[in-house]
TrEMBL record, chains A, B:
SUPFAM superfamilies xrefs: lambda repressor-like DNA-binding domains, Periplasmic binding protein-like I
Classification via CDD domains: HTH_LacI (cd01392), PBP1_LacI_sugar_binding-like (cd06267)
Domain HTH lacI-type: 3-57
UniProt keyword Membrane present: no
Keywords: DNA-binding, Transcription, Transcription regulation
Gene3D superfamilies according to UniProt: 3.40.50.2300, lambda repressor-like DNA-binding domains
Protein name listed in UniProt: LacI family DNA-binding transcriptional regulator
One MF annotation (Gene Ontology) recorded for this entry: DNA binding
Provenance organism: Kribbella yunnanensis
Amino acid sequence: MPVTLREVAERAGVSIRTVSNVVNDFHQVAPATRARVQRAVDELGYRPNTAARNLRSGRSGLIALVLPELDVPYFAELTRAVIEQAAAAGYTVVVDQTDGDPVRERELVMRGSRAAMFDGMIFNPLALGDGDLRDRPSSTPVVLLGERVVHGGLDHIMIDNVGAAELATRHLIDLGRRRIAAIGDQIDETRQTGRLRTLGYRAALRSASRKVIKELIRPTEFFHRADGAAAMADLLALPEPPDAVFCYNDLLALGALRTILGRGLRVPEDIALVGFDDIEDGRYSTPSLTTISPNKNEIAKNAVQLLLNRLDGDSSVPAEISAEYTLEIRESTLGRPM
Amino acid sequence: MPVTLREVAERAGVSIRTVSNVVNDFHQVAPATRARVQRAVDELGYRPNTAARNLRSGRSGLIALVLPELDVPYFAELTRAVIEQAAAAGYTVVVDQTDGDPVRERELVMRGSRAAMFDGMIFNPLALGDGDLRDRPSSTPVVLLGERVVHGGLDHIMIDNVGAAELATRHLIDLGRRRIAAIGDQIDETRQTGRLRTLGYRAALRSASRKVIKELIRPTEFFHRADGAAAMADLLALPEPPDAVFCYNDLLALGALRTILGRGLRVPEDIALVGFDDIEDGRYSTPSLTTISPNKNEIAKNAVQLLLNRLDGDSSVPAEISAEYTLEIRESTLGRPM
């Protein structure tokens, strides 16, 4: 038989309510009383499990953060920010990675049985689309991140990818570069990020009356260093290689940088590079990386706040928030100070 | 009133056991039946929460992974490996970061009320020590990672830091370097990693009959890029700067690399560099980073396996496992191929 709150209360010589307050981490218990209760809890081996607490409050205190890849620095940095924001509100974050696997994404977001473990979810889908989420049976609040889903009927925080990519490309045009390549286009239509950034890249070239040269737009399967290194090798093998490259994230740019320097070429003298994400790696590379810097703290703060609002019963129409970003100009386009 | 399993069963026209099987994700339910049950679950808004499941099985299906910093690539890569190993065993991993804060660490590992949310915990402490963990009241199984606690009476997976640091330093001696510095010594006695690696560094110098020069051993507060960059600047300011540096992790080495290249010096021609961790960043830097490579997949696999054994009732004496490692020799010591 499991030990009950009543038995703990008797052992500690306090009321059941006081035991409950200690067990639930409420703060209005005097330290000495708290210690006495904790001693009774330990001696009796009382296990005040989530089960009992869920049944009472209907809440688990857990927020799920579902991301494609935890070991991609952009997501690792975003995760830190979400954990900090959630902790400030008394929530624990459960982090899960999907690797963009549609089955895994569906399992996590769609199924009532799984979702019920969490009070809410912050979800950055890669594979699931608008239609998938409209059919969602679960009533657990979800805040969407990223650009995969645009009409999901859910709170959504995104980045203006077209505008940001246009800004990055325009910077290379303004520096006088003539053959500007792009790494990270995506053919798979479930991968919206690459498609949107290509739209911005094209828009910048067009508004500067530049021709869009198809062979300078390189698709990649993933946004990892290895993809950037390989795509850059392809670009360098062209009869007329580029003198600038806009990479759709910093990992691609760091991979491309490795390839360029490995050939004995210089950045930015021979080839200028711009990335996207502003991860710490790019601030310490040599040359340091010019990049689009989305405000990750703002994204995390808004995501947690929207979720808490829904948990508090907010039933207004879904919010659509566009996160701030800046262009951080560093050595990979400006050169190094003498 | 919450919807009951019985109501779902009646709506779906199946037994309560079948509903329970679907809700608990057991696999012996025919797809058509599963769909029918799911429909009934959705229509009625049945919420088969963790509470009910916990009460039945006594398990939450959650493993906590408690690490100092999620956005440190070594931990991000280890997290990926732990999630994969746990998923294969049907467990979901809850990731939490402590930032090495003793209060936060104590809260997570010591308190019964919190620990009961998880079936078990994989814990890499930075601040808590042997004594702290011996007093642990909770009976939740814990597997320890790292070197902070060595006699905690718990399963423990560690790296032979002294041996690995000796190997790294010996490599620099073998290359003929004369003034070999070390970055990452730690004065705070709760930070064992730095202390142990300094022991290995000293041992290698001693066995090569080299003098240990105190000013060449640089302490750092953290193991971040910024610490490595600053420590390297201090070393370069010495009347006689080093011609090689063993950095106690790759982030320190990448920070040091940034400082060295920023001064117009060459790696390894002027200064050779060795790191520790073998994170992906170091494979793509220019030059690529020679480093100690701990077998992260093996660490993750052992950690999950030890935890599952305890959950299955294994009560044998705590295991002490020393993880494998190798020295990966790359351009930062060998130079780049011509």
